[in-house]
């Protein structure tokens, strides 16, 4: 994330955008059921990411819709980073 911020600060004047996507846990069939259950309980959406959950943010960042976004870290973690621990 710090490298991304540095790169964004250097490359912005060249009209190059640099952003970061921070994914949460990606579900795989090989994960133990207990792990999946405990991890999912700590996310606001109550599940782990599937194989398509990152696509939307990547398409958005690659499109002109994000033309004024640089130096940003976007967590795609189902709310895991927002969990209060209560």
In words, what does this structure look like?
- The protein has 3 helices and 2 strands.
- It is elongated and about 50 Å long.
Strand count, sense and barrel status of the largest sheet are: 2 strands, parallel
Which range best describes the helical content: under 10%, 10-25%, 25-40%, 40-55%, 55-70% or over 70%? Answer: 25-40%
- Count of distinct strands: 2
Order of strands in the sheet with the most strands?
Answer: 1-2
Unreliable stretches (pLDDT < 50, length at least 5) are: none
The H/E string reads HEHHE
List keywords for this structure.
alpha+beta, two-stranded parallel sheet, single chain, 3 helices, 86 residues, 31% helix, 9% strand, elongated
Topology at a glance:
Elements lengths: L1 H10 L8 E4 L9 H9 L13 H8 L10 E4 L10
Parallel strand pairs: 1-2
Structure at a glance:
The protein is α+β, with helices and mostly antiparallel strands. Helix content is 31%, strand content 9%.
């Amino acid at each position: 994330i710090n490298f991304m911020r540095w790169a964004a600060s250097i490359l912005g004047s060249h009209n190059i955008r640099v952003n970061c996507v921070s994914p949460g846990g990606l579900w795989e069939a090989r994960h133990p059921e207990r792990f999946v259950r405990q991890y999912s309980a700590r996310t606001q959406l109550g599940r782990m990411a599937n194989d398509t959950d990152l696509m939307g943010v990547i398409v958005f960042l690659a499109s002109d819709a994000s033309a004024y976004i640089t130096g940003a870290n976007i967590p795609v973690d189902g709310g895991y980073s927002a969990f209060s621990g209560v």
